[in-house]
Amino acid sequence: MKVVRLYFSGLVAIVLGATVLAARADPHSPAERAIHYRHSLYHVIEWNVTAMGEVVKGKAAYDPAAFSLHANRVAGLVPMILEGFPPGSYIEGHTAAKESVWTDRATFEELLRKLGTRSTTLASVAAGNDLGAIKPAFSALVDTCEECHKKFKNKSDH
Ligand code: HEC
Q1: Rounded CA gap, 30 and 88, in Å?
Q2: Domain for residue 79, yes or no?
Q3: Number of domains present in the structure of the chain
Q4: How close is the Cα of 134 to the center of ligand 1, in Å?
Q5: Which of 56, 57, 114, 133 has the highest CB neighbour number within 10 Å of its CB?
Q6: Is residue 130 part of a domain?
């Protein structure tokens, strides 16, 4: 009887283990989809921030309409980020996010709010078409990206 019970619990462990592995490998699991969603958002944000960065650094001509478009896009995308970090969406090896995103949630959310404020500030400053005023607002935004990455993101290839 004891042997049978041991055999049975072993089997349960194997089945459970296989289920967990399958869930992790499944690209359509809620966690994988959340990771994909937040990566996608960050890439679109990065595209627009890079375009503005070129202008601020003097590597690209300042086109007020194009700059405002980029700034407005970022301001519109930032409020979508938090949704991409639901509980349980930390999968080692699949995310560059540190586990502290979930354990030190208040700090993480505060930095996201700061990013939100700074991105809407940049968008409204950009509407004034004054590159001199835009520069500090842009730096403030990028500083927040770095501040959060230092705290909550591991180095990754992309
Ligand atoms: C509140 C914290 C926070 C802020 C602010 C923040 N990020 Fe991130 N960012 C992260 C985390 C965490 C990851 C890792 C996400 C993952 O791999 O699941 C990340 C990942 C990224 C990635 C890599 C995406 C990928 O596919 O691996 C890019 C690009 C990026 N961020 C750009 C930015 C830019 C640009 C800004 C500023 C405009 C910014 N981030 C602001 C937390 C933040």
Answers
A1: 9
A2: yes
A3: 1
A4: 22
A5: 56
A6: yes
Q: Is residue 139 part of a domain?
A: yes
pLDDT of residue 156: 76
Predicted confidence (pLDDT) per residue in 57-94, tens digit = 999 999 999 999 999 999 999 999 999 999 999 999 99
- Structural domain range at position 50: 28-152
| CATH number, position 54 | 1.20.120.10
Residue 115 placed within a domain: yes
What is the number of helices (H) and of strands (E) in the chain? 6, 0
Atom 5 of ligand 1 has which residue's CA nearest to it?
A: 145
Q: Which residue's CA is minimally distant from atom 22 of ligand 1?
A: 42
Atom 6 in ligand 1: residue holding the nearest Cα? 145
User: Rounded to whole angstroms, how far apart are CA atoms 77 and 74?
Assistant: 5
pLDDT in tens, 20-49: 554 456 888 999 999 999 999 999 999 999
* 152 pocket-lining for ligand 1 (C-beta < 6 Å): yes
